Amino acid sequence: MKLANNLYLYPEHGMMDANVYVLKGDPGVIFDTGYTGWVVSRIADMKKDGIDPESIGIILNTHQHIDHASGNEAFKQFSHAKFYQHPLQKEHYQLVVVEGTRMLGDEPIEFTADAMIENNKIIAGGVEIECIPSPGHTPDSICYYLRQAKVLICGDVLFEMNTGRVDLPGGGADELKMSINRLSQIDIELLLPGHMGAVSGAANVKRNFDYIKQNIFPWL
Q1: Would you say the pTM of this structure is higher than 0.90?
Q2: pLDDT tens, 61-77?
Q3: Separation of alpha carbons 114 and 51, rounded Å
Q4: Alpha-carbon distance 8 to 27, whole Å?
Q5: How far apart are CA 22 and CA 81, in angstroms?
Q6: Mind giving me the DSSP string for 6-47?
Q7: How many domains does one find in the chain?
Q8: Residue 140 belongs to domain with CATH number
Protein backbone atom coordinates (compact mmCIF):
# COMPACT_ATOMS: atom_id res chain seq x y z
CA MET A 1 0.00 0.00 0.00
CA LYS A 2 1.48 3.32 -1.07
CA LEU A 3 1.81 5.90 1.69
CA ALA A 4 3.63 8.84 0.11
CA ASN A 5 6.04 9.37 -2.75
CA ASN A 6 8.11 6.17 -2.94
CA LEU A 7 7.18 4.85 0.51
CA TYR A 8 5.00 1.75 0.94
CA LEU A 9 3.42 -0.06 3.91
CA TYR A 10 2.84 -3.82 4.22
CA PRO A 11 0.80 -4.30 7.41
CA GLU A 12 1.46 -6.86 10.11
CA HIS A 13 -0.19 -10.29 10.04
CA GLY A 14 -1.15 -10.62 13.71
CA MET A 15 0.89 -10.47 16.89
CA MET A 16 3.89 -12.48 15.66
CA ASP A 17 4.57 -10.13 12.78
CA ALA A 18 5.20 -6.41 12.27
CA ASN A 19 4.51 -3.60 9.86
CA VAL A 20 7.02 -3.60 7.02
CA TYR A 21 7.93 -0.43 5.14
CA VAL A 22 9.60 -0.21 1.74
CA LEU A 23 11.32 2.82 0.25
CA LYS A 24 11.37 2.37 -3.49
CA GLY A 25 14.59 3.54 -5.14
CA ASP A 26 17.96 2.53 -6.51
CA PRO A 27 18.65 0.73 -4.33
CA GLY A 28 15.39 0.22 -2.49
CA VAL A 29 15.25 -0.18 1.29
CA ILE A 30 13.08 -2.46 3.42
CA PHE A 31 12.56 -1.42 7.05
CA ASP A 32 12.01 -4.66 9.02
CA THR A 33 11.25 -7.88 7.20
CA GLY A 34 8.66 -9.15 9.67
CA TYR A 35 8.20 -12.74 10.76
CA THR A 36 9.85 -15.25 8.45
CA GLY A 37 6.60 -17.14 7.82
CA TRP A 38 5.08 -14.14 6.05
CA VAL A 39 7.97 -13.24 3.76
CA VAL A 40 6.63 -15.02 0.66
CA SER A 41 3.16 -13.48 0.86
CA ARG A 42 4.66 -10.06 1.59
CA ILE A 43 6.82 -10.29 -1.52
CA ALA A 44 3.70 -11.12 -3.52
CA ASP A 45 2.07 -7.96 -2.18
CA MET A 46 5.14 -5.94 -3.11
CA LYS A 47 5.00 -7.23 -6.66
CA LYS A 48 1.36 -6.09 -6.90
CA ASP A 49 2.65 -2.60 -6.15
CA GLY A 50 5.24 -2.89 -8.89
CA ILE A 51 8.16 -3.46 -6.53
CA ASP A 52 10.59 -6.14 -7.66
CA PRO A 53 12.24 -7.66 -4.55
CA GLU A 54 15.52 -7.74 -6.49
CA SER A 55 15.42 -3.93 -6.51
CA ILE A 56 15.74 -3.92 -2.71
CA GLY A 57 19.39 -3.49 -1.81
CA ILE A 58 19.28 -2.71 1.91
CA ILE A 59 17.57 -4.30 4.92
CA LEU A 60 17.27 -2.16 8.05
CA ASN A 61 15.81 -3.34 11.36
CA THR A 62 14.16 -1.04 13.87
CA HIS A 63 15.17 -3.69 16.42
CA GLN A 64 15.87 -7.40 16.36
CA HIS A 65 12.85 -9.02 17.98
CA ILE A 66 11.56 -12.08 16.15
CA ASP A 67 8.43 -10.36 14.79
CA HIS A 68 10.51 -7.64 13.12
CA ALA A 69 13.73 -9.31 12.04
CA SER A 70 13.36 -13.07 11.72
CA GLY A 71 12.54 -12.68 8.02
CA ASN A 72 15.94 -11.15 7.22
CA GLU A 73 17.60 -14.29 5.84
CA ALA A 74 14.47 -15.44 3.99
CA PHE A 75 14.09 -12.05 2.32
CA LYS A 76 17.70 -12.16 1.14
CA GLN A 77 16.87 -15.29 -0.87
CA PHE A 78 14.41 -13.33 -3.01
CA SER A 79 16.44 -10.14 -3.39
CA HIS A 80 19.88 -8.63 -3.67
CA ALA A 81 19.47 -7.05 -0.25
CA LYS A 82 22.18 -6.82 2.36
CA PHE A 83 21.39 -6.43 6.04
CA TYR A 84 22.96 -3.27 7.41
CA GLN A 85 23.24 -3.67 11.16
CA HIS A 86 23.57 -0.76 13.57
CA PRO A 87 26.47 -1.08 16.07
CA LEU A 88 23.95 -1.18 18.94
CA GLN A 89 22.20 -4.07 17.26
CA LYS A 90 25.46 -5.97 16.98
CA GLU A 91 26.31 -5.21 20.61
CA HIS A 92 22.95 -6.44 21.93
CA TYR A 93 22.36 -9.31 19.49
CA GLN A 94 22.57 -12.09 22.07
CA LEU A 95 20.33 -10.28 24.54
CA VAL A 96 17.61 -9.26 22.09
CA VAL A 97 17.62 -12.00 19.46
CA VAL A 98 18.46 -15.06 21.50
CA GLU A 99 17.43 -14.35 25.10
CA GLY A 100 14.43 -12.22 24.11
CA THR A 101 13.01 -14.87 21.79
CA ARG A 102 13.46 -17.65 24.33
CA MET A 103 11.74 -15.55 26.97
CA LEU A 104 8.74 -15.44 24.60
CA GLY A 105 8.78 -19.24 24.48
CA ASP A 106 10.24 -19.65 21.00
CA GLU A 107 13.58 -20.55 19.50
CA PRO A 108 15.47 -17.73 17.78
CA ILE A 109 15.74 -17.58 14.01
CA GLU A 110 19.22 -16.12 13.75
CA PHE A 111 20.62 -13.95 10.98
CA THR A 112 23.90 -12.35 10.00
CA ALA A 113 24.92 -8.80 9.12
CA ASP A 114 26.42 -8.04 5.72
CA ALA A 115 27.55 -4.51 6.56
CA MET A 116 27.57 -2.05 9.44
CA ILE A 117 25.89 1.34 9.59
CA GLU A 118 28.45 4.09 10.01
CA ASN A 119 27.91 7.55 11.53
CA ASN A 120 24.17 6.91 12.03
CA LYS A 121 23.47 7.54 8.36
CA ILE A 122 22.46 5.57 5.26
CA ILE A 123 22.22 6.94 1.71
CA ALA A 124 19.91 4.99 -0.59
CA GLY A 125 18.52 6.09 -3.92
CA GLY A 126 19.57 9.65 -3.26
CA VAL A 127 17.69 9.73 0.05
CA GLU A 128 19.47 10.31 3.35
CA ILE A 129 18.17 8.14 6.18
CA GLU A 130 19.14 9.26 9.67
CA CYS A 131 19.48 6.56 12.34
CA ILE A 132 18.34 7.65 15.80
CA PRO A 133 19.22 5.29 18.69
CA SER A 134 16.07 5.08 20.82
CA PRO A 135 16.54 2.53 23.64
CA GLY A 136 13.82 1.54 26.06
CA HIS A 137 11.69 -1.11 24.36
CA THR A 138 15.00 -2.80 23.58
CA PRO A 139 18.57 -1.53 23.95
CA ASP A 140 19.05 -1.89 20.18
CA SER A 141 16.00 0.11 19.04
CA ILE A 142 16.75 2.45 16.12
CA CYS A 143 14.33 4.94 14.59
CA TYR A 144 14.84 5.95 10.97
CA TYR A 145 14.16 9.55 10.01
CA LEU A 146 13.62 10.75 6.47
CA ARG A 147 14.15 14.43 7.12
CA GLN A 148 13.11 15.77 3.73
CA ALA A 149 9.78 13.91 3.87
CA LYS A 150 9.44 14.40 7.67
CA VAL A 151 8.82 10.68 8.14
CA LEU A 152 9.84 8.72 11.25
CA ILE A 153 9.86 4.91 11.18
CA CYS A 154 9.86 4.15 14.90
CA GLY A 155 9.43 0.39 15.36
CA ASP A 156 8.10 -0.43 18.84
CA VAL A 157 9.33 2.71 20.57
CA LEU A 158 5.83 4.16 20.36
CA PHE A 159 2.52 3.54 18.66
CA GLU A 160 -0.73 5.39 18.23
CA MET A 161 -1.68 6.26 21.84
CA ASN A 162 0.74 3.75 23.37
CA THR A 163 4.37 2.67 23.73
CA GLY A 164 6.31 -0.54 23.36
CA ARG A 165 6.63 -2.89 26.34
CA VAL A 166 9.67 -2.65 28.60
CA ASP A 167 9.65 -6.06 30.31
CA LEU A 168 11.71 -8.06 27.81
CA PRO A 169 15.51 -8.43 28.15
CA GLY A 170 17.23 -5.06 27.97
CA GLY A 171 14.04 -3.04 28.24
CA GLY A 172 13.74 -0.05 30.55
CA ALA A 173 10.98 2.45 31.27
CA ASP A 174 13.24 5.41 32.07
CA GLU A 175 15.21 4.95 28.86
CA LEU A 176 12.01 4.65 26.83
CA LYS A 177 10.65 7.89 28.29
CA MET A 178 13.87 9.72 27.44
CA SER A 179 13.83 8.35 23.90
CA ILE A 180 10.24 9.42 23.34
CA ASN A 181 10.91 12.86 24.78
CA ARG A 182 13.80 13.30 22.34
CA LEU A 183 11.77 12.09 19.38
CA SER A 184 8.92 14.46 20.23
CA GLN A 185 11.24 17.38 19.41
CA ILE A 186 11.66 16.25 15.79
CA ASP A 187 9.60 17.70 12.95
CA ILE A 188 7.39 14.74 12.00
CA GLU A 189 4.44 14.67 9.64
CA LEU A 190 4.14 10.89 9.29
CA LEU A 191 4.82 8.53 12.21
CA LEU A 192 5.19 4.90 11.15
CA PRO A 193 5.20 2.41 14.05
CA GLY A 194 5.94 -1.28 14.02
CA HIS A 195 2.38 -2.27 14.91
CA MET A 196 -1.10 -0.89 14.36
CA GLY A 197 -1.73 2.19 12.24
CA ALA A 198 0.24 5.22 11.15
CA VAL A 199 -0.19 8.69 12.61
CA SER A 200 -0.46 11.29 9.86
CA GLY A 201 -0.22 15.06 10.07
CA ALA A 202 2.04 17.15 12.29
CA ALA A 203 -0.81 18.14 14.62
CA ASN A 204 -1.89 14.52 15.10
CA VAL A 205 1.69 13.42 15.71
CA LYS A 206 2.12 16.09 18.38
CA ARG A 207 -1.22 15.12 19.93
CA ASN A 208 -0.06 11.51 20.03
CA PHE A 209 3.19 12.40 21.80
CA ASP A 210 1.27 14.55 24.30
CA TYR A 211 -1.21 11.75 25.00
CA ILE A 212 1.57 9.24 25.62
CA LYS A 213 3.42 11.57 27.98
CA GLN A 214 0.29 12.39 29.95
CA ASN A 215 -1.45 9.01 30.01
CA ILE A 216 1.10 6.26 29.37
CA PHE A 217 4.27 7.52 31.05
CA PRO A 218 2.77 7.31 34.57
CA TRP A 219 2.16 3.58 34.07
CA LEU A 220 5.59 2.67 32.68
Answers
A1: yes
A2: 999 999 999 999 999 99
A3: 22
A4: 15
A5: 12
A6: TEEEE---STT---EEEE-SSSEEEE----GGGHHHHHHHHH
A7: 1
A8: 3.60.15.10
